[in-house]
Amino acid sequence: MEPEEAYIVKNKPVILYCKATPATQIYFKCNSEWVHQKEHTVEESVDDTSGLLLREASIEISRQQVEELFGPEDYWCQCVAWSSAGTTKSRKAHVRIAYLKKTFEQEPLGKEVSLEQEVLLQCRPPEGVPPAEVEWLKNEEPIDPAGDRNFYITIDYNLIIKQARLSDTANYTCVAKNVVARRKSTTATVIVYVNGGWSMWTEWSACSSRCGRGYQKRTRSCTNPTPLNGGSICEGQSVQKLACTSLCAVDGLWTEWSKWSTCGTECTHWRRRECSAPTPKNGGKDCEGVLLQSQNCTDGLCMQSSLYQMSAEPDAKNGVGFSSAPSTDEVALYAGILTAVLMCLAVSAVVAFLIYRRNRHSFSSEVDSSVLSGGFQPIHLKTSRTAELLTTPPDLTSAAAMYRRPVYALHESSDKIPMTTSPLLDSLPNLKIKVYSSPGLAPSQDELSDPGSGGSPKITNPLLDAEIMTLRNQSLARIRDPSCTALGTFNSLGGHLIVPNSGVSLLIPAGAVPQGRVYEMFVTVHRKESMRPPVEEGETVLSPVISCGPPGALLNRPVILTMHHCAEAWSLDWQIQLKNQCAHGEWEDVVVVGEESYSTPCYIQMNEEACHILTETLGTYCLLGRSLSKASAKRLKLAAFGPLVCSALDYHIRVYCLDDTQDTLKEVLQMEKQMGGKLLDEPKTLTFKDSSHNLRLSIHDIPPTLWKSKLLAKYQELSFSQVWNGSQHCLHCIFSLERSSFRVTELACQLCVRQVEGEGQIFQLYSTLSENTQSIETSLLDPASSITTLVGPSAFRIPLSIRQKLCSSLDAPPPRGNDWRMLARKLNLDRYLNYFATKSSPTGVILDLWEAQHFPDGNLNRLAAVLEEMGRHCSTSSVPDL
Description:
By secondary structure, this protein is α+β, with helices and mostly antiparallel strands. Helix content is 16%, strand content 31%.
């Protein structure tokens, strides 16, 4: 047993113990001087396991002994034991006087924050030996980040509340403690307030006056939400009134009775009146009483039929003073309707019977499907052969007809779908579809399997799984175009994936892949138009679309995806947003650069030409920009190409206007090389502003006696929207020239490209039309730049052992403040320090980002100079020279 580190608390001495076996003598040496034998306490015993002699020695160290030591080194003691086998020494055990100062270097400050806002409470504990441990109290109760994940305590003891809740309104205290004492900081009160919000307006009320002028009103309340904890009240009015006018109700009154009518054949006469003096209006009451009156006009001398006798009282239904007996016309009408209904039923029964007989006759005949075959061999089916088809085994020896034209489903001609254009068959070249003419013939399992799989398992289901096909198509795409994909296998040692000459790479730090796991990882640049995210008005695509994977892989620390962008002076005039393509193909927002918070899954470091995305989620990403002012601009790359060999009089110059990213220019160079084109001048950069002006291209100084332009106008223009939104890939225009004869073998002219009322570039074109001419060389097609995978420690500029020393030295907050925060400021990586503070090793993430920024030729001397400026001399000595 070796002596352990010890601390003297107040005036209480400490005792150091040491055991050795076998040992004949054992003593302590403190500060290079032997401790007197009298100060030792030595005990001897026999080890029960080995039977050897075991000696145990102990000494007592007082506070006075430690204080009397002068020198740069702390008080230390070492145990030395002798035996017949020789001498052995223990490690040095330091003895220090423990203390904890009373004053905190930084105490938390109270804050008032809105609901769901991020809160940062900072705390620097007092200086002490041993260093103090820190915990946080909420209303005098300890905070457990494991139990409540809304709290997070950083490596430098700061408390982060990710999204403030009403329940987080409390008093917070930072507590520092070691073996000597326990100190509390001043209490910081956090108040989470809620700003008031209006509810929905109620419906308009009825007019306040039933007759004449009044008003209607509607109300709303400041309860959505209700202001709390000093939150602002709602601005605006809670009641709205609207003038209204209600029409007064007018009750109806009867007019005077009319004169009696002449006496009729039924011995009665009539009189009537109207409810129009006045007529009821605006909801007024109707007149009460009868409209007509009748009475006997013969003083009872005329006898009336009992069936149609007039009632002295008005009828309850018709409101007049006579009965409503049925007439002969109504009886005739009802009889006619009944007769028509019976005839319709009879006709329907006859039609149904005829249809039934016709269908029965049709089913008993043969079905000839030749009219539906659409290129298939005719198949004749009879109902009587059903049993034979089910019992007879298929004849697998029959010859199959080879059908090479588009195959259609058996539907109407308007519904025919050519199966050979289906995306399911894109990855299966030279597919031959067999159509069997024998009614009992069925394809074998071998023919249903993948024609390119060889000995792979057979596919028994004719419908291929969509997800498997998607993965297979992506794999085939990567195999067909390795120039835009990098693949590699990585373990916990990490590495680097590089897409050559594209500005795209993926840094996998050591420890990102969990220990014991191996991932096959990839990074791909997508060039298809369909992969680019949709842009709204005012937006533009600023980077290529990049995928890295495998999706869903578990990572212990963030990887760094690097890609080029074309935003000019991005921090001043742009709002740049990172987009991610989800599994269903839709694009969703991830984070706006400069608006990161603790809850955002990524951090983006923007440089002048490249951006570095730190993320623990692998997927498909792209940068979109929104212009904030007319001064915002994006960089374009201009490239002019001509034919490598010209055997005709016509000569075509193609001018490309591309986003200024390496991969976009690389794609055009590859495409022109396949087309037999050559680069006529070095590509040039043009700043294109958000001024709504078009891009104008013109050609000048053509020798008039040797060449003539076939362009009718003086110039060509690309519209502002085409150039700005970046949705159209490889945007270009063509200038067509014609030489006077085949003896003309040289062309010298100028090509001007500029934004109307903006900047421009001029190409000095000189081309020789002979077959031996060479294209202008460019490093983007350099075959030597073919390294795509670096695995293990060789992938990083900083050796692993030195990285570990830097992390252990800079992660812990020292009194002078020259820790990882100062390193981030010196390296211009301090835009959002809270991201690094949430990581287990902030220094490690900063060094990873430095590696990605300066790949492949990072200057370690510059890094050593930064550490020297920070006063980290011991760290500086660890960094080797180049």
